[in-house]
Amino acid sequence: MQSNLFRTFFISLFILVSFGAQAADSKSDNSDEEELDVTEMILHHVSDTHDFHILDWDGHAVSIPLPVILWTDNGLVSFMSSEFHHDDEGTYIVEKGGQKFVKYHEKIYYAGETANADGAFVSLDEEAHPTNATPLDFSITKNVFTLFLSMTVLLLIFIGSARAYRKSENNVPKGIAKFTEPLIMFVKDDIAIPNIGEKKYARFLPFLLTIFFFIWLNNIFGLIPFFPFSANLSGNIAFTITLATITFFITNLNGNKEYWKHIFWMPGVPVPMKIFLMPIELIGVFTKPISLFIRLFANITAGHIVVLALISLIFVFKNMYGDVAGYAAAPVSIVFVVMISLIEILVVAIQAYIFTILSALYIGMATAEHEHH
Amino acid sequence: MESLVTIAAVGAGLAAIGAGIGIGRIGGSAMDAVARQPEMYGKIQALALIMAAFVEAIALFAIVIAFIKG
After folding, report:
1. Mind telling me how many Å the CA of A353 is from chain B's nearest CA?
2. Do A357 and B46 lie within an 8 Å CB cutoff?
3. How many CB atoms lie within 10 A of CB A126?
4. Per the CB 3.0–4.6 Å rule, which of A51, A58, B6, B48 could disulfide with B30?
5. d(CA A251, CA A343)
6. What is the pLDDT of residues A289-324, one digit of tens each?
């Protein structure tokens, strides 16, 4: 009973706070002084950028420059992102190889001849999207940087554990292998074998292990709020689409006769039903990976957005009711951020598990031998 | 445009209610099952997590649509 009361109290507090935030949001739109755009701040934090922004000091951005690599009309062009001088509004032109580039909302365009009313060298259409031509962008962005980082960490961990087994005499795990062995056994015994089956699991185990540890590590990196982590890599839709595409190909390339028969000519049902089921089953082939990538993307991005929204409550309150309200809101939102972060630790592990177990399930469905009666 | 954003938000909220009911039922049933057969705890937990992921996906689709509209 007591805990129920507490829960009700916290939930109503949370709802009150959220409504306050919404009111503040609509209010701050009208006032000109010190504009605070929470949505833009949050979206900036969860999206990919060309430099690694660490903090703002004295009104200046402190960030790590990352290489910009462009395939232009005149071939390959590369320079450091610091040459844009933190400009993201298309006002600062970088001239390389006889070509001019501007960065506008984290996209690189060929600069226009003249600046528009806002001083940006881009021409905008009615919906404020630039119409300038874009070079192909192969830059080492924040996400690509994190990708390389997690790759390095994974290689260090697993080459280290492989070496630990080679060194030990009776195959008893030593050193880092003591940590990785239970996790690998978990993926093998609780994910691969129950879903794919004793006979065939060994072929797919390396893939399952890779996606499990890769997603988990990148999720954890996203939770750590300082350099060189904090990039929202596993909440990037391109990243999750790539992983889901790999699962899609592995599933369908390994699909046996039974699997394709169940899709195109479902056995055991009358012919009109077979024809009716065929398109549905065919759509199902594609919705499986689609739900995989949307689930991972939305879960991780939602986690980042919730934490950022709770933190920005402090500033929303400050802008709305003055400094005192800001100070009063700070402890509440920090407590909430800590709680959400604790839940997120659980969520990131569960999402890695879900992605892996669903991949295993789909592979198992495609390779299962059906018993004939 | 403004009204479209609001409608998208309401839709996302409705989807969240549906998913909440769904996940609540999964969790409750899993609890019942574990209370009845504690030795099946591991299997039931794994199944419940997978089912929750399927239900949750629907709410997340709605969130993504709300984002696109917003």
Report:
1. 9
2. yes
3. 5
4. B48
5. 32
6. 998 998 899 889 888 888 888 898 898 888 888 888
